[in-house]
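Subject: Sanity check before I submit

Could someone independently write out the structure tokens for this chain? I want to compare against mine line by line before I put it in a report. The sequence has 185 residues.
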Amino acid sequence: MRGVLAALAAAALAAAPGLRAQAGEARFLEIEGQPRIEYRLQVHPANAHVLTQTAVLSPDTALNAAKLLNLHLSTGDIEEAAVLSTSPKRRFEVLQDYRQSVGEEAFKRVFAQYFDPANRLLTEVAIDRHHLLIWELRGNAGAPSHLAGQYFIDMEGKFLLNDVPSPARTQLRRVLEAYRAGRLP
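---
Independent answer below. Compare away.
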């Protein structure tokens, strides 16, 4: 009976990505000379980042907010992408400057890569209502892959790109740095 209940609980968690992210495993990062950071770690299913034809996107989880943001950016719609930020005016300016520096098509390609099945969402890290998505983005033509981070904050059930500095965001940046340095499993 326990095995059946465990299987049902696992299936329920798999069917509810928002719930899974909240129920992540508690972890600690300890770096000499710095305060200990407590966070939750959630690993999403393979290809959780890939868009599906039937998906209706809403920023109700960090992953869904990232999909919606990256969808707007991969089509060049910086106005809609900027609305998904805690600082929309500044985000619009940054995106506009970046698009002008690399060109329209390169801009779209950069953000379309988040949906490529060859790339992957490695993990979601949460500290209170602050979330970090860590991505492995593979380089083109044999270039090495790199780890990218996207920071989100839960604003009463709506996840926004977190463009406002805070102690929790700084802690998440330290977790990302430790992950890049191979200090986290």
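---
OP: Matches mine. For the report I'm noting this point. The beta strands are 25-29, 37-42, 120-127, 130-137, 146-155, 158-161.
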